[in-house]
Amino acid sequence: MLSSQRKQLILEILAREKQVLSRELSQRFAISEDSIRRDLRELAAEGLLQRVHGGALTVSAAIAPFQVRKSVQIPSKKIIAQKAITLIQPGYIVIVDGGTTSEELIKLLPKDLAFTVVTHSPTIAVGLIDFPLVDVIVIGGQLYKHSVVTTGAAMIESIRRINADLFFMGVTGVHKRAGFTTGHYEEACVKKALSERAAETVVMASPEKINSASAFAIGDLNMASTLLIDGSLDEDMSRLLESMQITVL
């Protein structure tokens, strides 16, 4: 079998099973694990999968540039944003992550809802200017332009001063093995730190993020209390989240 044919079959298996293991592929194709690892490296270099220890996972489609992502899954993001708003109570302190789903969230906020937003996204902060009852606290740092959020070690001291009710967290991947992931190391660290300062972490995930993974881990699935989605989950994921007592809306 040609290498190109084998790699196509690997992608088909990955699409069907959501993960592949090097050892199992080696046995299936009767070739060495070194050859399989080379195939996986080449597919990863093309952006077609995410390599992990022992194999590979489906790569997240949510790592495209910000302007591209703004036009992806807009109806789903609006549905998820509307669900998120129902969780906000008057007087709450709410950490709002950056990202395109968060942008949809603030567009749908009722004008008469009084609460406090803490954000490290300049876009989110500016989007709340016309909401007179919403107090806005902006956490500064170095601007990460891909996601239009601030990052960096200097933010951690500010984050430690926050005791929030909710954290609406954006991710690029939700996977039963890899957990919650994103495409940038420092952004993953900031998300983790923000989650630790909220009573509840609510993850907003449009369909392209489910059963996929990016390079940097934010944390295990059990760091979230609630997962907001549009559509349904497969049986394995539903059972896992239920066992962790994670609410799925």
TrEMBL record:
<protein>
    <submittedName>
        <fullName>DeoR family transcriptional regulator</fullName>
    </submittedName>
</protein>
<keyword id="KW-0678">Repressor</keyword>
<keyword id="KW-0804">Transcription</keyword>
<dbReference type="InterPro" id="IPR037171">
    <property type="entry name" value="NagB/RpiA_transferase-like"/>
</dbReference>
<dbReference type="InterPro" id="IPR014036">
    <property type="entry name" value="DeoR-like_C"/>
</dbReference>
<dbReference type="InterPro" id="IPR050313">
    <property type="entry name" value="Carb_Metab_HTH_regulators"/>
</dbReference>
<keyword id="KW-0805">Transcription regulation</keyword>
<dbReference type="Pfam" id="PF00455">
    <property type="entry name" value="DeoRC"/>
</dbReference>
<dbReference type="Pfam" id="PF08220">
    <property type="entry name" value="HTH_DeoR"/>
</dbReference>
<dbReference type="InterPro" id="IPR036388">
    <property type="entry name" value="WH-like_DNA-bd_sf"/>
</dbReference>
<dbReference type="InterPro" id="IPR036390">
    <property type="entry name" value="WH_DNA-bd_sf"/>
</dbReference>
<dbReference type="InterPro" id="IPR001034">
    <property type="entry name" value="DeoR_HTH"/>
</dbReference>
<feature type="domain" description="HTH deoR-type">
    <location>
        <begin position="3"/>
        <end position="58"/>
    </location>
</feature>
